[in-house]
Amino acid sequence: MTINPVLIKSSFAALEPHGPEVAAYFYRHLFEHNPGVRSLFAEHLGEQQDRLWSALGALVTHLEDTETVVGLLQELGRRHAGYGALPAHFPAVGASLLAALRHFAGEEWTPETEASWTAVYGVVAETMGQALAETSG
C-alpha cells in the first residue's frame, strides 16, 4: 500500500469541521470494541480528545516531511510507553481510527482513501511501536 498525500489531505479537510466529534467517536469505538484498554485512559477524555485531533492534524500537515513526522511519532511512542500502551494495542487503535475517519469523511471516503489511511496508520504504528519498545525495554 502506498500513501497518497492528496487523498489524505482532502479527506482530512472534510473531517476538520467535525474534529471533536471524530475524536469522541474514536474513543467510543475503541472502548466499545476493546473494553480492556479503557483503564489506560483518564475518566474524562476532553483533553485527550483534543490531543488526538491535534496529533492527527500535525501528521497531515507534515505528511510529506518525513523527518518531522518520524520525530512526532517517536515522541508519541515514548510518551505512550509511560501510559502503559503495548504494541498489541495498535491494531485496535488503528481499527477505531479508521472507523471514525470513515464515519465522518462522507463522500471523500473511497476505497483508495481507506487504503491510503491504512498505509499511513501502518507507518504510525511501526514508528510509534519501535519508540515504545525502545523506551519500555
TrEMBL record:
Ranges of residues in domain Globin: 1-133
GO MF, one example: metal ion binding
GO biological process terms, semicolon-separated: cellular response to nitrosative stress; nitric oxide catabolic process
Keywords: Heme, Iron, Metal-binding, Oxygen transport, Transport
Pfam families per the UniProt record, alphabetical: Globin (PF00042)
Coiled-coil intervals, chain numbering: none
PANTHER family the record matches: FLAVOHEMOPROTEIN (PTHR43396:SF3)
Family note: Belongs to the globin family.
Identification of the protein by name: Hemoglobin-like flavoprotein
Organism: Kitasatospora atroaurantiaca
